[in-house]
Design a protein that fits this description.
Largest sheet: 5 strands, mixed, barrel
Oligomer: single chain
Number of strands: 10
Structural class: alpha+beta
Distance between the termini: 18 Å
Strand order of the largest sheet: 1-4-6-9-7
Helix content: 10-25%
Mean pLDDT: 92
């Protein structure tokens, strides 16, 4: 008999991270490259909540969401020397696909290539970069540096500006320190898995 959930699992705590983590993970997608509004998971209910309109004319360059059963705590923060702490959220992930995926609230199997080291108000706010596992167009890519430079620059630019106050009243709290490769990304994912276990106990699935 096939096991199944009788009720909708919480996307952060009830979905599995994937059997091949940290090399390949299941990503829960909150936003697509076509969303003009910033959506975030509601931590209490597990439903998507409207956070804010996009702060500039830029739209997300990739599918964007988080890795279930991860948590950015002290172990994740330790991998960013400039960080005071982790941001206490699940680990963010960007997933590239050559075909248009225009809806969110999806589970996407993703192969890890690298990531962005990001500070948000002094907190570690890493963005893992991955490709859709079944997308043969990206079979060649094993490292972030193998992607076209323009693609990487677009991701860096978006996250460097996506919370910017275009009125100029408030300073930009986001700082993209740099990018890193697949091994460091796997280390960040493993650290976030360990932080999750310490914060929430045994994995539910």
């Amino acid at each position: 008999m096939t096991l199944f959930n009788r009720y909708r699992p919480h996307p952060w705590h009830g979905l599995p991270i994937g059997d091949s983590a940290p090399d390949e993970v299941d990503a829960y997608i909150e936003m697509t490259p076509f969303d003009e509004v910033k959506y975030e998971i509601d931590k209490k209910t597990g439903y998507l909540r409207v956070d804010r309109p996009q702060g500039s004319s830029a739209l997300p360059p990739t599918l964007y969401g988080f890795i279930p059963q991860t948590y950015c705590g002290p172990r994740v923060a330790a991998l960013t020397p400039q960080a005071d702490m982790g941001d206490h959220d699940p680990l963010d992930i960007c997933v590239l696909s050559q075909q248009r995926i225009s809806r969110a609230e999806l589970v996407v199997p993703a192969r890890v290539l690298g990531g962005l080291q990001v500070l948000d108000g002094g907190e570690a706010d890493d963005k893992i970069v991955a490709v859709l596992v079944s997308d043969t167009v990206f079979d060649y890519a094993k490292e972030l540096t193998q992607l076209p430079v323009a693609v990487i620059n677009r991701i860096v630019h978006y996250f460097g500006t996506y919370k910017m106050d275009i009125t100029g009243v408030k300073p930009n709290a986001i700082e993209v320190i740099g990018t890193y490769g697949a091994q460091h990304a796997r280390d960040v994912i493993q650290a976030s898995m360990d932080d999750y276990l310490e914060e929430y106990g045994d994995r539910m699935v």
